[in-house]
Every structure is written in structure tokens, then in C-alpha cells.
Write a structure and sequence with these properties.
By secondary structure, the protein is α/β, with parallel strands linked by helices. It is built from nine helices and twelve strands. It folds into two domains: 2-90 and 277-295, Rossmann fold (3-Layer(aba) Sandwich), CATH 3.40.50.720; 93-269, 3-Layer(aba) Sandwich (Rossmann fold), CATH 3.40.50. Helix 1 crosses helix 9 and helix 2 packs across helix 4. It binds NADP nicotinamide-adenine-dinucleotide phosphate. Residues 70-71, 89, 93, 140-145, 163-165, 194-198, 200-201, 222-224, 248-249, 272, 274-275, 309 line the site of NADP nicotinamide-adenine-dinucleotide phosphate (NAP).
Length: 309
């Protein structure tokens, strides 16, 4: 019998208890799953970074921390964490992100605001270009970025991806590192940011980099708030350098009422809803890692805490 501690807010337990139990049963794993287990008896910690558990020191026999969220910036710096940390790569979350990104790219591509949101534009016909005439750049070509790139490619867009290491994704122009950044920015008629929040990505979109994007570019950020220098983005919007931005994530969430993004006519704010972990598919991912841990196999979706993602 293995002991699995569920360390997250109580409302998550309500959502996850049944799917986790059923995924464990389907995998033939006999387990004691609870929100309350003596720390020195815990084998695996199913974890949300906003849980009360912040000191991992007493969890002396635990084999891994299995994060329920894709983003891990709140935990990678935890000095008491000495065991493997796996983040969430959930097929349900990925589908959600693909749908959200595709929808917002299409809004910009088709100029939907002019014809639907703001009918006062009247009979000013401006036929949008075909997707094949539009370049979308995905900053962050990981689990989510790659899925979004492939979906946009399927719609006919010219797609470029930018990552830290070099990649090979069929049909996608893959750029990487400092050397590839200027080229990626130059191509970004529509930029989608799906980078993690790390010291290396903080304020990546600043006065200098926003100025390198094509004039009138669109920016869609479902990644993390600190990727963007807020003041620089507002200045770029006011100057017409960036035509419009759709932001799902912010440095402070919920976005404070007094933040200028709320009232800015060229910003759409969405309340961190781009993609959510889905309990049924996420439970299967958690259980897959527990199975691997018990078999002595490598965990999937491991985080490199030194890189911060
Ligand atoms: P991932 O698989 O870890 O991919 C991250 C990508 O960013 C990788 O391609 C990585 O490059 C690249 N990257 C990291 N640091 C970089 C740097 N310094 N320079 C250039 N590229 C860099 O993560 P994911 O699952 O796709 O998720 C991406 C982010 O989406 C998460 O970190 C989270 O913040 C956000 N997210 C948001 C929501 C929402 O609802 N808004 C939901 C889920 C996730 P390599 O491939 O070379 O490693």
C-alpha cells in the first residue's frame, strides 16, 4: 500500500478525489489517498503551489511532488524541495489552450472587432487576408506552444516558434535562443506568448523588443504576466506600435481594479481562464507518474528547478 498525500485547497479535493481514485484503480494501484497523512509516511505528494504545505523537509520518504498545475514558478525556488518535481502536462488543459489561442488569433486575423464588436464602423469593407498570408509567432514551443502551433498550421497560418533549445516541428519555422529572438520578433504579426515565468523570461516583451515587432502587431499573452513590461506595452499601444493586446495573465491576479489595462481601449483582459487542468485527464497523468515511481522508471514532465521550468 502506498500513501498519497493530496496537498491542495479543499475545493480541489472535491474535484479530484473521485477521478484520482478511479485512475488509481484503473492502474491497479492500491493506495491510501488522503489530505491528511503523517509526513514521514507519505510516498507521493499531489500538489498545488498555493497549498499550506510549503516545507517539504518532514516528507522524508516521499519520492516525488506531482504538481496539479502547468506553471511551477511558485515552487521551483523552494529550497526545502529535494525530490523530483513533475509539472502538469494534461491533454485536457492542452486542448483548452489550443481552443483559446486559436479563437483569439482568429479574432485578430479576421478583424472581428471592426465587423462584430464595433458595428459603428459601418459599411467599410476590408477583406481579411488568408491565413497563409499571416505570420503567427509562438514564443515558447513547449507542450502548449507546440500544440497551438500545429493547430494554427492546420488553419493555414505561417507559423514560427521560438524556444530556448533548438526544435524541429514539421511545418513550423523553429528559431531559438538569443540569436533567433530578433528574427522571431520581426516576423510576429500576431505574437502568442507561451513561455514560463523564469528569471530569463521576465520582461522579455519590453520597450526594445516590442519595437522590433511589425508595426500594428497583435500580442496575445496566455503565458505569465511577468513576461511583459506593462508600462512598455501601454506605451507601445498608445504609439500604435502594437495594435491590440489580449492578456489572460498578470503580475498580480486578480488584476487590480486600478490597473490601466482594465480601461485601455486596446487591451482585452481575460481572467486567467485560457486553459484549466481537467481533473479526469490530469488524474491519469498523476497516476502514470506514481506507476513509474513504483516501477523505478523515469518520471514524465520533470521540472528543472535550476532553469525554473
Ligand atoms: P513547457 O512545455 O515547459 O514549454 C515552455 C517553452 O518555453 C519551451 O519551449 C521552452 O524552451 C521555452 N522557454 C523557456 N525559457 C525560455 C527562454 N529563456 N528563452 C526561450 N524559450 C524559453 O510549458 P507549457 O506546458 O507549454 O506551458 C507554457 C506556460 O503556459 C506555462 O509555464 C504557464 O506559465 C502557462 N500556462 C498558462 C495557462 C493559462 O490558463 N493562462 C494554463 C497553463 C499554462 P525549450 O523547449 O527549449 O525548453
Amino acid at each position: 500500500m502506498i500513501n498519497i498525500l493530496f496537498a491542495a485547497k479543499p475545493e480541489r479535493w472535491t474535484t479530484y478525489e473521485a477521478p484520482l481514485r478511479s485512475a488509481l484503480a484503473a492502474a491497479g494501484i492500491e493506495a491510501h489517498l488522503s489530505q491528511d497523512i503523517a509526513p514521514d509516511q507519505v510516498d507521493y505528494i499531489v500538489y498545488a503551489p498555493n497549498s499550506d504545505l510549503q516545507d517539504f523537509t518532514p516528507y522524508t520518504r516521499a519520492k516525488a511532488v506531482l504538481n496539479l498545475w502547468a506553471g511551477v514558478e511558485q515552487i521551483t525556488g523552494n529550497q526545502t524541495l529535494k525530490i523530483p518535481l513533475a509539472r502538469m502536462v494534461d491533454p485536457g488543459l492542452t486542448k483548452g489552450m489550443v481552443e483559446w489561442v486559436t479563437g483569439h488569433v482568429m479574432r485578430y486575423h479576421l478583424g472581428m472587432d471592426a465587423h462584430i464588436v464595433n458595428p459603428s464602423h459601418g459599411w467599410t469593407v476590408k477583406t481579411p487576408p488568408l491565413a497563409q498570408e499571416r505570420e503567427v509567432v509562438i514564443f515558447g514551443l513547449g507542450a502548449l506552444g507546440t500544440a497551438c502551433a500545429q493547430a494554427l498550421l492546420g488553419l493555414g497560418f505561417r507559423v514560427t516558434g521560438w524556444s530556448r533549445s533548438s526544435k524541429d516541428v514539421a511545418g513550423v519555422t523553429c528559431l531559438n535562443g538569443e540569436d533567433g529572438l530578433a528574427d522571431a520578433l520581426r516576423r510576429a504579426e500576431i505574437a502568442v506568448t507561451l513561455l514560463p515565468d523564469t528569471p530569463a523570461t521576465t520582461n522579455l516583451f519590453n520597450e526594445e523588443t516590442l519595437a522590433q515587432m511589425p508595426r500594428g502587431a497583435f500580442l496575445i499573452n496566455p503565458g505569465r504576466g511577468p513576461l511583459i513590461d506593462d508600462d512598455a506595452l501601454i506605451a507601445a499601444l498608445d504609439a500604435g506600435q502594437i495594435a491590440h493586446a489580449t492578456l489572460d495573465v498578470f503580475r498580480v491576479e486578480p488584476l487590480p481594479q486600478e490597473h490601466p489595462f482594465w480601461a485601455h481601449p486596446l487591451v482585452t483582459v481575460t481572467p486567467h481562464i485560457a486553459a484549466e487542468t481537467r481533473a479526469s485527464t490530469a488524474s491519469e497523468v498523476i497516476v502514470e507518474n506514481i506507476k513509474r515511481g513504483e516501477q523505478g522508471a523515469d518520471f514524465i514532465n520533470l521540472v528543472d528547478c535550476t532553469l525554473g521550468y
